[in-house]
Design goal:
The chain is α/β, with parallel strands linked by helices and 144 residues long. It has one domain: Metalloproteases ("zincins"), catalytic domain (Collagenase (Catalytic Domain), 3-Layer(aba) Sandwich), CATH 3.40.390.30. The chain has five helices and four strands. The chain has a four-stranded mixed beta sheet with strand order 1-2-4-3.
């Protein structure tokens, strides 16, 4: 599985921990790695995530993460794009009283969990998904 990170918005150097993020993504997908060909994680501005949300999902608000997956008819593998809004995750962290980098990694993992079958369409499912994402984020942030 190929994991790519693209920073399309300015991020403080403290947050550009691509190796750490790739390790966490790899860990989150470890049981289903063969299912994926490429996962692109694109860090975008609020303006860009709003545009994506409007254009593709019909929602008129800034969100933290949007996940798209495409199944290849050739090799039956998933090619995924995950868009993460750094500024929104920072805002959420402040509102929730969490560390910014932990929330940022939690949101990245949240996007990955959607790809492996988690859903957050009910409060119970959202709480379960958030708990898994936070546990993975904590595990990798303790190492670094």
């Amino acid at each position: 599985m190929e994991i790519n990170f693209f920073y399309q918005t300015a991020l403080p150097p403290y947050y550009k921990k691509t190796k750490l993020y790739k390790a966490a993504v790899s860990f989150a997908t470890r049981k289903q790695k063969n299912k994926f060909e490429t996962v692109n994680i694109v860090i975008v501005s609020p303006k860009e995530i709003l545009r994506i949300n409007k254009e593709f999902l019909g929602h008129n608000y800034v969100t933290d993460v949007i996940t798209f997956e495409n199944l290849s008819p050739v090799n039956n593998k998933i090619y995924a794009d995950i868009f993460v809004c750094f500024e929104q995750t920072k805002k959420q962290a402040k509102e929730l009283g969490k560390h910014y980098r932990k929330e940022f990694l939690t949101v990245i993992i949240h996007g990955i969990l959607h790809l492996i079958g988690y859903d957050d369409d009910t409060l119970k499912k959202r709480d379960e998904m958030n708990a898994v994402a936070e546990n993975i984020a904590e595990k990798f942030l303790k190492k670094n």
